[in-house]
Design a protein that fits this description.
The chain is an alpha/beta fold and 316 residues long. The chain has helices at 12-23, 60-72, 157-166, 186-195, 244-248, 288-306; strands spanning 2-8, 28-31, 48-49, 58-59, 80-81, 86-91, 96-100, 103-112, 119-121, 135-136, 149-153, 172-176, 197-199, 202-209, 213-220, 226-230, 233-236, 240-242, 254-255, 258-260, 272-274, 279-280.
């Protein structure tokens, strides 16, 4: 079978792209390398998300399930293949042959929606921290922090949102960032300053402990003052770094360690599109809602490619 489109990744952008593709009668299929849908949302199912339109707050698990339920209306038109990892691609005159661990997919276009799969979390740059069992880079179960003293490192939305999520679960939460200004939404930063201990501008210098971290030593970057903070768990949200081997297999142009895309989300290779955390364009925001908009844009461009006379209408 020759598909019009293979969507790689069943995270929020991939699931919504599949929904939009089905609405526009695009013969598509989704492949997902893991055994779960939801992408990076599966790494923090209990985290509260504050910037999703239509919801004052929604946890990540519910958002993933809502997107999947929407997609399920069209699962017969756009089937989902789990545990299917893309391993390479061959370009032919009018189609691509996509190699996976489950066989070949022949398709006219490809949509890369596997942003999380192209990145790995930036680690705490303290050698001793590598082997400690209570330093976390993602959270699946918040109950493990109940009644504990928790340190959260980072200045973006993930760090601030997790600090706020845990404030009513943990015994104490200390949020530490290297700058006075945060990258997170200002409303949430203000809320964090009211509800928990926020330390700026501090950086992690050393960890005390053997198998587990018992305390974190931080340094004020302005005064050079060292402070030791007792802890039961350290959560690190320093962002992500690209996995070069996974970027290179697509042979597309890259800028700032992300895939460079045009306004219609097409990469430098005709017929290969990309959306979500893996892409770069001027003004790009790394938000779930942005990725959903990018998915709609990409499907719109692909639909126009196959049906240039068609006027797009999404049945929302």
């Amino acid at each position: 079978m020759i598909y019009d489109l293979v969507i790689i990744g069943a995270g929020p952008a991939g699931l919504y792209a599949a929904t939009c593709a089905a609405m526009n009668k695009i013969k598509a299929v989704i492949i997902e390398s893991s055994s779960e849908y939801g992408g990076q949302l599966t790494l923090y199912r209990e985290k509260t998300i504050y910037d999703m339109p239509g919801f004052a707050r929604i946890n990540a698990n519910d958002l993933a399930n809502n997107l999947f339920e929407q997609y399920k209306e069209y699962e017969n038109e756009v089937p989902l293949h789990m545990n299917t990892q893309a391993t390479g691609v061959e370009e032919h005159d009018d189609h691509y042959v996509l190699h996976t661990n489950q066989g070949l997919f022949i398709t006219k276009t490809i949509l890369l929606a596997n942003g999380g799969g192209m990145f790995s979390p930036k680690k705490l740059e303290i050698t001793e921290a590598e082997s400690m069992d209570n330093i976390f880079y993602f959270v699946k179960d918040t109950s493990q922090f109940k009644g504990k003293d928790v340190i959260v490192l980072g200045g973006g939305d993930s760090a601030v949102d997790w600090a706020l999520t845990l404030v009513d679960i943990a015994k104490s939460v200390t949020l530490i960032h290297r700058r006075h200004d945060f990258r997170a939404h200002q409303h949430n930063v203000d809320d964090a300053r009211k509800r928990l201990n926020v330390m700026t501008p501090f950086v992690a210098k050393d960890v005390i402990g053997v198998e587990s971290a018992k305390a974190l030593i931080v340094e004020n970057i302005e005064t050079k003052e060292l402070v030791t903070i007792q802890t039961d768990a350290i959560l690190v949200f320093y962002g992500v770094s690209p996995v070069k081997s996974k970027m290179d297999q697509w042979a597309v142009d890259v800028k700032d360690n992300s895939i460079l895309v045009s306004p219609n989300m097409q990469t430098s290779r005709k017929g290969i599109y990309a959306v979500g955390n893996s892409v770069f364009y001027e003004g790009k925001l790394r938000m779930i809602v942005t990725a959903l908009g990018e998915a709609a844009t990409a499907i719109g461009a692909i639909t126009k490619f196959f049906y240039p006379e068609k006027t797009l209408t999404y049945k929302h």
